[in-house]
Design a protein that fits this description.
binds zinc ion; globular; 323 residues; 25% strand; single chain; Metallo-beta-lactamase, Chain A; alpha/beta; five-stranded mixed sheet; 27% helix
Amino acid sequence: MALSRRGFLAATGFVAAGTALSGGAVPAFALAPMAGAPIPGAIRRKVGSVEVTALLDGYIDMPPDFLVGADGATVAALASAAHQSPGPRRTPVNAYLVNLGDRLVLVDAGTSTSMGPTLGQLPAALAAAGVGPAQVDTVLITHMHPDHIAGALTPTGQALFPNAELVVTEADYVFWHDDSVMNQAPSEFRSFFLGARNAAAAYAGRLRRIAGEGQAVGSIRSVPLPGHTPGHAGFVVESGGEALLIWADTVHLATYQFARPDWSMSFDVDPQQAAQTRRRIFDRAAADRVMVAGMHMPFPGFGHVVREGSEYRFVPAEWPYAL
Ligand SMILES: [Zn+2]
Protein backbone atom coordinates (compact mmCIF):
# COMPACT_ATOMS: atom_id res chain seq x y z
CA MET A 1 0.00 0.00 0.00
CA ALA A 2 1.29 3.46 -0.92
CA LEU A 3 2.07 5.60 2.10
CA SER A 4 0.16 8.94 2.00
CA ARG A 5 1.95 12.15 3.05
CA ARG A 6 -0.11 12.25 6.23
CA GLY A 7 0.68 8.63 6.85
CA PHE A 8 4.38 9.31 6.38
CA LEU A 9 4.32 12.26 8.83
CA ALA A 10 2.43 10.21 11.40
CA ALA A 11 4.81 7.31 11.01
CA THR A 12 7.83 9.55 11.53
CA GLY A 13 6.34 11.34 14.52
CA PHE A 14 5.82 14.81 13.03
CA VAL A 15 2.03 14.65 13.44
CA ALA A 16 2.30 13.07 16.85
CA ALA A 17 4.16 16.08 18.15
CA GLY A 18 1.47 18.39 16.78
CA THR A 19 -1.24 16.26 18.33
CA ALA A 20 0.41 16.42 21.69
CA LEU A 21 0.53 20.22 21.47
CA SER A 22 -3.14 20.57 20.60
CA GLY A 23 -4.14 17.93 23.13
CA GLY A 24 -2.94 19.95 26.09
CA ALA A 25 0.16 17.99 27.06
CA VAL A 26 3.14 20.31 26.79
CA PRO A 27 6.34 18.70 25.51
CA ALA A 28 9.52 19.65 27.30
CA PHE A 29 11.49 21.73 24.79
CA ALA A 30 14.89 22.92 25.90
CA LEU A 31 15.00 26.63 26.72
CA ALA A 32 17.21 28.25 24.09
CA PRO A 33 17.23 32.02 24.53
CA MET A 34 18.46 34.10 21.62
CA ALA A 35 22.06 35.25 22.14
CA GLY A 36 21.43 38.75 20.75
CA ALA A 37 25.14 39.26 20.05
CA PRO A 38 27.68 37.81 17.65
CA ILE A 39 30.39 35.40 18.79
CA PRO A 40 33.68 37.29 19.42
CA GLY A 41 35.53 37.74 16.13
CA ALA A 42 38.76 35.75 15.96
CA ILE A 43 39.90 33.84 12.88
CA ARG A 44 43.32 32.19 12.65
CA ARG A 45 45.37 31.21 9.64
CA LYS A 46 48.96 30.30 8.94
CA VAL A 47 51.65 32.14 6.99
CA GLY A 48 54.39 29.54 6.65
CA SER A 49 54.99 28.43 10.24
CA VAL A 50 53.63 31.67 11.73
CA GLU A 51 50.08 31.86 13.08
CA VAL A 52 48.14 35.04 12.34
CA THR A 53 44.82 35.64 14.09
CA ALA A 54 42.46 38.35 12.88
CA LEU A 55 40.71 40.03 15.83
CA LEU A 56 37.56 42.13 15.47
CA ASP A 57 37.26 45.22 17.68
CA GLY A 58 33.85 46.21 16.29
CA TYR A 59 32.50 48.46 13.56
CA ILE A 60 31.90 52.02 12.42
CA ASP A 61 29.12 53.06 10.04
CA MET A 62 31.06 55.10 7.48
CA PRO A 63 29.16 57.24 4.95
CA PRO A 64 30.47 57.41 1.36
CA ASP A 65 30.56 61.24 1.73
CA PHE A 66 33.90 60.64 3.46
CA LEU A 67 35.35 59.72 0.04
CA VAL A 68 37.21 62.62 -1.57
CA GLY A 69 36.20 63.16 -5.21
CA ALA A 70 33.47 60.51 -5.28
CA ASP A 71 30.39 61.17 -7.41
CA GLY A 72 26.96 59.91 -6.42
CA ALA A 73 26.28 58.03 -9.65
CA THR A 74 29.46 55.96 -9.44
CA VAL A 75 28.94 55.36 -5.71
CA ALA A 76 25.42 54.09 -6.46
CA ALA A 77 26.64 51.87 -9.31
CA LEU A 78 29.47 50.32 -7.27
CA ALA A 79 27.18 49.79 -4.27
CA SER A 80 24.57 48.11 -6.48
CA ALA A 81 27.20 45.89 -8.11
CA ALA A 82 28.21 44.77 -4.60
CA HIS A 83 24.55 44.17 -3.57
CA GLN A 84 24.83 46.97 -1.03
CA SER A 85 22.94 50.19 -0.38
CA PRO A 86 24.78 53.41 -1.29
CA GLY A 87 24.30 54.62 2.31
CA PRO A 88 26.81 54.28 5.15
CA ARG A 89 28.91 51.10 4.99
CA ARG A 90 29.42 49.06 8.12
CA THR A 91 33.21 49.16 8.32
CA PRO A 92 35.09 46.93 10.75
CA VAL A 93 38.05 47.76 12.95
CA ASN A 94 40.43 44.79 12.85
CA ALA A 95 43.71 43.98 14.56
CA TYR A 96 46.05 41.05 13.94
CA LEU A 97 47.83 38.84 16.45
CA VAL A 98 51.02 37.31 15.07
CA ASN A 99 52.58 34.35 16.88
CA LEU A 100 56.20 34.12 15.71
CA GLY A 101 56.83 31.12 17.94
CA ASP A 102 59.17 32.92 20.31
CA ARG A 103 57.13 36.12 20.50
CA LEU A 104 53.50 37.24 20.43
CA VAL A 105 53.01 40.43 18.42
CA LEU A 106 49.77 42.38 18.22
CA VAL A 107 49.48 44.63 15.17
CA ASP A 108 47.23 47.51 16.27
CA ALA A 109 45.07 47.46 19.35
CA GLY A 110 41.54 48.61 18.49
CA THR A 111 39.68 51.43 20.21
CA SER A 112 38.98 50.57 23.86
CA THR A 113 36.15 52.95 24.90
CA SER A 114 37.35 55.87 22.77
CA MET A 115 34.91 55.47 19.88
CA GLY A 116 31.64 54.26 21.31
CA PRO A 117 29.68 51.11 22.06
CA THR A 118 29.92 49.41 18.65
CA LEU A 119 33.65 48.97 19.26
CA GLY A 120 36.03 48.00 22.05
CA GLN A 121 35.69 44.23 21.63
CA LEU A 122 39.37 43.50 21.06
CA PRO A 123 40.03 42.13 24.60
CA ALA A 124 37.08 39.72 24.17
CA ALA A 125 38.36 38.63 20.75
CA LEU A 126 41.84 38.18 22.21
CA ALA A 127 40.39 36.04 25.01
CA ALA A 128 38.47 33.99 22.42
CA ALA A 129 41.84 33.39 20.73
CA GLY A 130 43.15 32.10 24.08
CA VAL A 131 45.47 35.01 24.79
CA GLY A 132 45.55 37.42 27.72
CA PRO A 133 47.04 40.94 27.54
CA ALA A 134 50.00 39.94 29.75
CA GLN A 135 51.16 37.40 27.13
CA VAL A 136 51.62 40.01 24.38
CA ASP A 137 55.32 40.87 23.93
CA THR A 138 55.08 43.62 21.31
CA VAL A 139 52.31 45.92 20.11
CA LEU A 140 53.09 47.26 16.64
CA ILE A 141 51.10 50.38 15.77
CA THR A 142 50.47 51.10 12.07
CA HIS A 143 49.61 54.74 12.87
CA MET A 144 48.50 56.64 15.93
CA HIS A 145 44.78 57.16 15.14
CA PRO A 146 42.43 56.24 18.02
CA ASP A 147 40.98 53.16 16.30
CA HIS A 148 44.49 51.68 16.21
CA ILE A 149 46.24 52.85 19.38
CA ALA A 150 43.54 53.74 21.95
CA GLY A 151 43.00 50.03 22.61
CA ALA A 152 46.53 49.83 24.00
CA LEU A 153 45.01 51.57 27.03
CA THR A 154 42.40 50.46 29.54
CA PRO A 155 39.24 52.60 29.84
CA THR A 156 40.98 54.45 32.71
CA GLY A 157 44.05 55.23 30.62
CA GLN A 158 46.51 52.67 31.94
CA ALA A 159 48.65 50.42 29.72
CA LEU A 160 46.51 47.37 28.89
CA PHE A 161 49.53 45.22 27.96
CA PRO A 162 51.72 45.07 31.09
CA ASN A 163 54.67 43.28 29.48
CA ALA A 164 54.64 44.66 25.93
CA GLU A 165 56.84 47.18 24.20
CA LEU A 166 54.85 49.65 22.10
CA VAL A 167 56.31 50.28 18.65
CA VAL A 168 55.27 53.37 16.68
CA THR A 169 56.69 55.04 13.59
CA GLU A 170 58.95 58.04 14.03
CA ALA A 171 56.98 60.16 11.54
CA ASP A 172 53.68 59.56 13.31
CA TYR A 173 55.20 60.13 16.74
CA VAL A 174 56.62 63.48 15.63
CA PHE A 175 53.40 64.53 13.83
CA TRP A 176 51.03 63.77 16.72
CA HIS A 177 53.37 65.41 19.25
CA ASP A 178 53.72 68.64 17.24
CA ASP A 179 51.82 71.42 19.03
CA SER A 180 51.83 73.71 15.99
CA VAL A 181 50.16 71.00 13.88
CA MET A 182 47.64 70.32 16.66
CA ASN A 183 46.79 73.98 17.06
CA GLN A 184 46.13 74.37 13.33
CA ALA A 185 44.05 71.19 13.04
CA PRO A 186 40.23 71.34 13.09
CA SER A 187 38.98 71.13 16.67
CA GLU A 188 37.34 67.73 16.11
CA PHE A 189 40.80 66.23 15.54
CA ARG A 190 42.27 67.57 18.79
CA SER A 191 41.30 64.36 20.59
CA PHE A 192 43.37 62.38 18.05
CA PHE A 193 46.50 64.28 19.14
CA LEU A 194 45.74 63.90 22.83
CA GLY A 195 44.90 60.20 22.45
CA ALA A 196 48.16 59.48 20.63
CA ARG A 197 50.13 61.34 23.30
CA ASN A 198 48.33 59.57 26.16
CA ALA A 199 49.08 56.15 24.67
CA ALA A 200 52.75 56.98 24.10
CA ALA A 201 53.03 58.33 27.66
CA ALA A 202 51.43 55.22 29.19
CA TYR A 203 54.20 53.13 27.58
CA ALA A 204 57.06 55.48 28.48
CA GLY A 205 60.23 53.45 29.04
CA ARG A 206 59.05 50.68 26.72
CA LEU A 207 58.22 52.75 23.65
CA ARG A 208 60.26 52.13 20.51
CA ARG A 209 60.22 54.34 17.42
CA ILE A 210 60.99 52.87 14.00
CA ALA A 211 61.55 54.52 10.62
CA GLY A 212 61.70 53.45 7.00
CA GLU A 213 61.45 49.98 5.52
CA GLY A 214 63.11 47.29 7.58
CA GLN A 215 62.88 44.99 10.56
CA ALA A 216 60.13 45.97 13.02
CA VAL A 217 60.28 43.00 15.37
CA GLY A 218 61.54 39.45 14.81
CA SER A 219 60.93 38.54 11.16
CA ILE A 220 58.20 41.19 10.74
CA ARG A 221 59.20 44.05 8.42
CA SER A 222 57.74 47.55 8.29
CA VAL A 223 56.71 49.17 4.99
CA PRO A 224 56.07 52.94 4.94
CA LEU A 225 52.63 53.73 3.44
CA PRO A 226 52.44 57.52 3.93
CA GLY A 227 49.40 59.67 3.20
CA HIS A 228 46.66 58.53 5.57
CA THR A 229 49.03 59.82 8.24
CA PRO A 230 52.69 60.83 7.72
CA GLY A 231 53.98 57.69 9.44
CA HIS A 232 51.25 55.29 8.30
CA ALA A 233 52.94 51.89 7.84
CA GLY A 234 52.17 48.34 6.90
CA PHE A 235 53.85 45.21 8.21
CA VAL A 236 54.98 42.16 6.24
CA VAL A 237 54.91 38.74 7.90
CA GLU A 238 57.11 36.28 5.99
CA SER A 239 57.70 32.61 6.73
CA GLY A 240 58.44 29.46 4.76
CA GLY A 241 58.11 31.13 1.36
CA GLU A 242 54.71 32.65 2.22
CA ALA A 243 53.98 36.29 2.99
CA LEU A 244 51.19 38.44 4.36
CA LEU A 245 51.11 42.23 3.97
CA ILE A 246 49.07 43.85 6.74
CA TRP A 247 48.41 47.16 5.00
CA ALA A 248 46.64 49.01 7.82
CA ASP A 249 44.34 51.76 6.45
CA THR A 250 45.24 51.54 2.76
CA VAL A 251 41.51 50.85 2.25
CA HIS A 252 38.63 52.15 4.39
CA LEU A 253 35.72 51.35 2.07
CA ALA A 254 36.43 48.21 0.08
CA THR A 255 33.21 48.58 -1.91
CA TYR A 256 34.59 51.69 -3.60
CA GLN A 257 38.36 52.04 -3.27
CA PHE A 258 39.44 48.98 -5.29
CA ALA A 259 37.46 50.24 -8.29
CA ARG A 260 38.36 53.86 -7.59
CA PRO A 261 41.78 53.87 -5.87
CA ASP A 262 42.06 57.64 -6.35
CA TRP A 263 39.18 58.19 -3.91
CA SER A 264 40.89 58.95 -0.60
CA MET A 265 39.24 59.71 2.73
CA SER A 266 38.45 63.23 3.92
CA PHE A 267 40.31 62.47 7.18
CA ASP A 268 43.51 61.42 5.40
CA VAL A 269 46.26 63.85 6.40
CA ASP A 270 47.37 63.97 2.72
CA PRO A 271 44.62 62.50 0.49
CA GLN A 272 46.69 62.80 -2.70
CA GLN A 273 49.66 60.99 -1.21
CA ALA A 274 47.31 58.36 0.25
CA ALA A 275 45.95 57.68 -3.26
CA GLN A 276 49.45 57.37 -4.72
CA THR A 277 50.41 54.98 -1.94
CA ARG A 278 47.23 52.95 -2.48
CA ARG A 279 47.91 52.47 -6.20
CA ARG A 280 51.55 51.59 -5.52
CA ILE A 281 50.73 48.96 -2.91
CA PHE A 282 47.79 47.55 -4.94
CA ASP A 283 50.19 47.11 -7.89
CA ARG A 284 52.83 45.49 -5.72
CA ALA A 285 50.33 43.14 -4.03
CA ALA A 286 48.81 42.18 -7.39
CA ALA A 287 52.17 41.62 -9.14
CA ASP A 288 53.67 39.67 -6.23
CA ARG A 289 50.39 37.77 -5.66
CA VAL A 290 50.93 38.38 -1.93
CA MET A 291 48.10 37.90 0.55
CA VAL A 292 46.99 41.12 2.21
CA ALA A 293 44.98 42.02 5.31
CA GLY A 294 43.70 45.37 6.48
CA MET A 295 42.27 47.07 9.54
CA HIS A 296 39.10 48.18 7.70
CA MET A 297 38.78 45.34 5.22
CA PRO A 298 35.64 43.22 5.68
CA PHE A 299 36.51 40.95 8.61
CA PRO A 300 38.75 38.94 8.76
CA GLY A 301 40.25 40.97 5.93
CA PHE A 302 42.50 38.33 4.30
CA GLY A 303 42.60 38.17 0.52
CA HIS A 304 44.35 39.07 -2.72
CA VAL A 305 44.37 42.07 -5.03
CA VAL A 306 43.77 41.58 -8.75
CA ARG A 307 44.51 44.33 -11.25
CA GLU A 308 41.95 44.93 -14.03
CA GLY A 309 43.14 47.76 -16.28
CA SER A 310 43.21 50.93 -14.17
CA GLU A 311 40.94 49.35 -11.55
CA TYR A 312 41.48 46.65 -8.96
CA ARG A 313 39.38 43.90 -7.43
CA PHE A 314 39.61 42.20 -4.02
CA VAL A 315 39.39 38.43 -3.85
CA PRO A 316 38.66 37.41 -0.24
CA ALA A 317 40.53 34.38 1.08
CA GLU A 318 38.44 31.34 1.89
CA TRP A 319 37.79 30.19 5.43
CA PRO A 320 40.97 28.56 6.78
CA TYR A 321 39.66 25.02 7.24
CA ALA A 322 42.85 23.75 8.85
CA LEU A 323 46.14 25.17 10.03
ZN1 LIG B 1 41.67 53.31 10.94
